Known about the structure:
Keywords: Transferase. This is Aminoglycoside phosphotransferase. Pfam families: APH. It comes from Micromonospora wenchangensis. One of its GO terms (molecular function) is transferase activity. This protein is α+β, with helices and mostly antiparallel strands. It has one domain: Aminoglycoside 3'-phosphotransferase, Chain: A, domain 2 (Alpha-Beta Complex). Helices cover 41% and strands 18% of the residues. The strands form three sheets. A five-stranded antiparallel sheet has the order 1-2-3-5-4. Strands 6-8-9 form a three-stranded antiparallel sheet, covered by helices on one side. The longest helix has 21 residues. The chain starts with a strand and ends with a helix.
Amino acid sequence: MAGVEVVVAHQERATLRVGDLFVKIDADPTRTAVEVEAMALAPVPTPEIRWHRPPVLALAALPGRPLGQLGEPSTASPAAWAAAGAAVRTLHDAPLPPWPGRHLDDLAARLDGECRWLVTNGVLPADLVARNRRVAEAALRPWTPVFMHGDLQTAHVFVEHDEVTGVLDWSEAGPGDALYDLAILTLGHEEHLGDVVAGYGTEVDVDVIRAWWSARSLLTIRWLTEHGFDPAAPGCEIDVLTARK
């Protein structure tokens, strides 16, 4: 029997790998339900569902390798990054999923609350937080909803021979901002933004993508810290904030 590998484990969910099978256990069974429905609707490659017994979801392993990892240089080619951009465009052109999306009204309040926490607890210097909060303001504008993945990290996009073989982790999918997906895909990999945009195939507002880099980093540092991750690791969220001018 193959060994059991713990892929990720924290208070909200755990993912285990046994051979070619990934088993996800989520404290909130609605997230795996969303994931199953989103994968059924998405017009891009997704993992084969072996079985689903809430709150547990078993998925077949994807061929290829992740496009990248936050905090590490990507070894994927520019063509692979462009292919990822093209896959995102295919998703965004699809009909909206039939459940509610994220609300702009809540975002500014959440962002301000996280900024206060970062400064009050001495996690980051006040001027760094204030500078990135100003940058993030450009993301707080009305958008035309698209079918958004919602957590399109490079580790969730698998490629082989410069083609996308599958996209993982659809629990945050729903109607949302197209530029948010492009921002999460390129977070910490700014050098590949041009490749992604070229593959996406239409003009985008790069300033809004940069604004989402700041907003995403400010919003997630507390969660990452409380769930055993290190946002201060080289190339990760705090470095992303430091790079913003």
